[in-house]
Amino acid sequence: MCNTILGRKLGMTQVWSADDRLIPVTVIQAGPCVVTQIKTTDKEGYNAVQIGFGAIKKNHVNKPMQGHFEKGNVEPSKVLREVHVDDTAAYELGQKITVEQFADIKKVHVSGISKGKGFAGVMKRHNYRGGPGYHGSHFHREPGSIGQCATPSRVFKGKGLPGHMGVDKVTVKNLEVIKVDVEQNILLVKGAIPGGKGALVSVRIA
Q1: pLDDT in tens, 185-201
Q2: What's the Cα-to-Cα distance from 139 to each of 36, 129, 145, rounded to whole Å?
Q3: CA distance 175 to 110
Q4: Exposed (0-12), middle (13-18) or buried (19+): which is 21, by Cβ within 10 Å?
Q5: 32 burial class (0-12, 13-18, 19+ CB within 10 angstroms)?
Q6: How far, in whole angstroms, is CA 162 from its chain's centroid?
Q7: Which residues make Cβ contacts (< 8 Å) with residue 159, sequence separation at least 6?
Q8: Nearest 10 degrees: Cα torsion 94, 98, 102, 107
Q9: Angle at 136 between CA 134 and CA 138, to 5 degrees
Q10: How far is CA 191 from the centre of its chain?
Q11: N or C: which end of the chain has fewer CB within 10 A?
Q12: Which uninterrupted H or E stretch holds 178?
């Protein structure tokens, strides 16, 4: 069984639990994915399968990728990702990977690209405390001193400063699986996941 499936974030909603608690959930369209390539230790040096997600027209695929899909005798996919596996014997080209494999899974890890926030200061970007908020301080949202005087007379690498915020790969771990709808390829997980509506996400068994 492949422990990863690709999908898209459809949005958030809430559902009632069996004990009448309101649970915030994220709706993910998970799969179906197709196996487009199988990599083995003998040929590539490691075991992995390449899975594709999302349909795309053949005339929107360049010539090298057309040859790649034709070699595997599979339909072109918009997104390709590689998943490491212990044994490739259980997979074959064109095999479908659906959300059904998550039916008995309790926890998953979800990875995606976070929303872009543009240029942000240190209080928003790094959660700095800032300066005094009272009248006349003239030092409300500044980072303060960032280095030393004589020793070592420089700013350390990694110092949190203003800059571009967001558009980073974020993984939210151990999200509870609330519901799996095999017919509609829908996966409901408790809580929020990275990205906006329509964002590509990777769901991995915890």
Answers
A1: 999 999 999 999 999 99
A2: 57, 11, 12
A3: 8
A4: exposed
A5: middle
A6: 25
A7: 146, 147
A8: 90
A9: 95
A10: 14
A11: N
A12: strand 169-181
Type of residue found at 160? G
Shortest CA distance to 28 belongs to which of 179, 172, 206?
A: 179
User: What does the buried/exposed string (b/e) look like for 116-135 if buried means 16 or more CB atoms within 10 Å of the residue's CB?
Assistant: eeeeebbbebeeeeeeeeee
- Residue 6 pairs in a beta bridge with 202
159, 146 contact by CB (below 8 A): yes
101 SS3 class:
helix
Strand partners, 189: 26, 177
Q: Which two tokens stand for residue 132?
A: 């005094």
- The C-alpha atoms of residue 91 and residue 50 are separated, in whole angstroms, by 11
Q: Which residues contact 174 (CB under 8 A, 6 or more apart)?
A: 107, 108, 109, 206
For 65, the 3-state DSSP assignment is helix
Other beta carbons within 10 Å of 152: 9
Note the pLDDT tens digit of each residue in 149-187: 888 888 999 999 999 999 999 999 999 999 999 999 999
CA distances from 27 to 30, 41, 68, 74, 113 (A): 9, 37, 32, 28, 16
Q: Where are the beta strands (DSSP E) in the chain?
A: 4-16, 22-30, 33-39, 48-55, 77-84, 96-97, 107-113, 118-120, 163-165, 169-181, 186-190, 200-205
